[in-house]
Design a protein that fits this description.
single chain, 263 residues, alpha+beta, Double-stranded beta-helix, 7-stranded antiparallel β-sheet, 5 helices
Length: 263
């Protein structure tokens, strides 16, 4: 199925949104809960599957929904369609945490991209949103993405989101070693594996994790500066514990604030 040709605009800096403009009859698919606002004459419907294979039948849709459940995503995807008569309409989508949105035109590349399992935001109807299993045990057990990555196929626009600053690098035969959590997406021509982060002392006391992702070959790679898991770990480490004393930055001011509140 040929993808719908949608226009778009990305707004914002640290907490971005993508505004997708739909001609009458055009549709964009998105993760459940990603929509920020939509103009009149835009109609949405939750469906099982991405709609790239309209004739796949009930069992095909159930199989597609089952694959999405493996990645931890909702079994439903939301389809937004401009059902107006003549005017273009816009629908906006936002990422669930601070970061950047990466637009990718699969028609200008190889028609396929692999990305971490929670990075897909939305795409033009006709895009196949599937899964890709890691062939190497090392990449499966110790990679930040585990055995499963999302595979996006088609010839239209797709949008993925990542945390922090985004870096796009093009490899021309060299090898790049990356923190496993900083990898966002890469083209299928890139070879992905996991290697040990130096000797035992460096692994346990270097602060860079036990393993690094190695990317080699020819193709594009997208990296993020601040994985959401790293941010969440820092927040949890400095959060006040129930029944315990305050620690970390701002503990004195936090105590004064609770006194003023009567706690």
């Amino acid at each position: 199925m040929k993808c719908h040709e949608v226009d778009y605009e990305i707004v914002g800096k640290d907490m971005q949104m993508v505004l997708v403009e739909l001609d009458p009859g055009e549709t964009v698919i998105a993760e459940a809960g990603a929509m920020n606002y939509m103009e009149e004459e835009i109609v949405f419907e939750a469906k099982m599957g991405d709609g790239s294979q309209p004739d796949q039948g009930v069992f095909g849709k159930l199989f597609s929904a089952g694959k999405r459940a493996i990645t931890g995503e909702s079994i439903f995807m939301t389809h937004f369609t401009n059902q107006g008569g003549s005017q273009k309409r816009k629908v906006a989508f936002a990422a669930p945490y601070p970061g950047s949105i990466i637009p990718m035109d699969l028609g200008q590349g190889g028609g396929e991209i692999l990305c971490q399992k929670d990075s897909f935001l939305c795409a033009a109807l006709g895009t196949e949103v599937g899964i890709a299993f890691q062939r190497r045990l090392g990449a499966g057990f110790f990679g930040g993405e585990g055995f499963i990555l999302q595979r996006l196929r088609g010839d239209g626009m797709v949008f993925v989101h990542a945390s922090g600053t985004i870096i796009e690098k093009e490899l021309k035969g060299e090898t790049l070693r990356v923190d496993t959590g900083c990898l966002v997406a890469f083209e299928p021509s890139i070879s992905y594996d996991i290697e040990r982060a130096g000797n035992l002392k460096s692994m346990f006391f270097g602060g860079e994790g036990l393993f690094l992702a190695t990317l080699s070959g020819h193709g594009k790679v997208w990296l993020q500066s601040l994985p959401f898991s790293r941010l969440a770990d820092r927040i949890l480490a400095h959060a006040p514990r129930a029944g315990g004393s305050d620690k970390g930055e701002g503990s004195v001011l936090g105590g004064i604030g609770r006194m003023l509140d009567g706690d």
